[in-house]
Write a structure and sequence with these properties.
It is built from 10 helices and 15 strands. Helices cover 37% and strands 24% of the residues. The structure holds nicotinamide-adenine-dinucleotide.
């Protein structure tokens, strides 16, 4: 690292990779994007041009090993996260790995063990809701004791229509994983048991997913639900509500004015995730660069990446068995 500047290499320059690269280049003091890699070289070149002429790589491993790359941001498709994170740990480089950290619990465990072998935290997982002002305010309120012990968690995650409906497996591992992590970090407890129910998007394909509800039970006795839609029909919305012994509190994330006009009362809803969570991505990246400057990683950890996949695995098992399923994890290692 040179004169307090963190040189970042970005792997995957699609929707979120290009957003992260743009924020790092323009909004984060002390960060510079020096290398980008994508299997679509034209896309990588376009993002590089916006990052003060960063070098374009065709090979992720070469970018990770480049001598002037201090830290790596992985924003390639889910299936490539685990191998990228492992290569970063092997190279001793801090990595911000987009969610999910892997696509299976066993691969997440390899990352956890590799990081423990390295003896220090290098991995931050892209669970950016931890940096969202509305989520943080609710966590602070719970921490203040205002509503007492938390009894019930309710997560709402509505997506706008995508060109293809996800399978229930993809909905869980790629999208509901955000809600699984939110439930764990906001309630401060691990999820012990899950029961997945869903409505197929296509009645002829039972594993296609339009709307899902996951019932969850936490260690310590609290309960909750994670509600997810692959096509809300109205836009993008993420909300959390927590009921405690002395009241119920929820996130308030919609700051648009309430408009009364023509015999209606209306309020805008974000069209999609980049608009709803833009400020959280900025906060996330600022925190990541700060922790890299201090020599490691902070924020959502490889443990969070591992446990969220352990819960996701139980959800998929429940979707197959039509029964509640226990979450199979491991003892939390001392390093986390
Ligand atoms: N934290 C969040 O809120 C959030 C939001 C969106 C996406 N994501 C995650 O980020 C990742 C990317 O999502 P996206 O929406 O940007 O997808 P995307 O399809 O827009 O972009 C993926 C990019 O990766 C490239 N790519 C494909 N194979 C590659 C490989 N082997 N190595 C390098 N690049 C490769 C593609 O060419 C494409 O440019 C996903 O894992 C997704 O789960 C996280």
């Amino acid at each position: 690292m040179n004169r307090g500047i963190v040189n970042v290499g970005v792997i995957g320059t699609g929707m979120i990779g290009s957003l992260h690269a743009g924020i790092l280049s323009s909004r984060i003091n002390g960060a510079r994007v020096v290398a980008v890699m994508d299997v679509d070289q034209d896309r990588a070149a376009a993002v590089a041009a916006d990052c003060d002429g960063a070098r374009v790589y065709s090979d992720a491993e070469a970018l990770i090993k480049a001598a002037d790359v201090d830290a790596v941001l992985i924003a390639s498709p889910d299936a490539f996260h685990a191998e990228g994170a492992l290569a970063c740990i092997a190279a001793g480089k801090p990595v911000l790995c987009e969610k999910p950290m892997a696509t299976a619990r066993a691969d997440a465990e390899c990352i956890l063990r590799a990081e423990m072998g390295a003896g220090r935290r290098l991995v931050q997982v892209g669970f950016m809701r931890e940096y969202d002002r509305a989520h943080r305010a609710l966590v602070d309120l719970l921490g203040s004791g205002e509503i007492g012990r938390a009894l019930r968690f309710r997560g709402i995650h509505m997506n706008p229509f995508r060109s293809e409906y996800a399978s229930i497996d993809t909905a869980i591992v790629n999208s509901l994983i955000h809600d699984i992590h939110s439930a764990r970090f906001m309630m401060g407890a691990e999820i012990a048991e899950v029961f997945a129910r869903w409505v197929p998007a296509n009645p002829k394909d039972a594993r296609s997913a339009r709307y899902a509800i996951i019932h969850i039970s936490f260690d310590g006795g609290a309960i909750g639900t994670l509600e997810w839609s692959g096509d809300s029909g109205y836009g993008y919305e993420v909300e959390v509500e927590i009921t405690g012994e002395r009241g119920t509190a929820g996130t308030s994330s919609n700051h648009s004015p309430i408009l009364r006009q023509g015999s209606t009362r209306s309020q805008a809803i974000s069209p999609d995730w980049p608009e709803r969570f833009y400020d959280a991505y900025v906060e996330e990246l600022a925190a990541w660069i700060g922790s890299v400057m201090r020599g490691g990683a902070a924020g959502p950890s490889a443990w969070d990446g591992y446990m969220s996949l352990a819960v996701a695995e139980a959800c998929i098992k429940s979707s197959e068995s039509s029964q509640p399923e226990r979450v199979i994890g491991m003892e939390r290692p001392a390093m986390y």
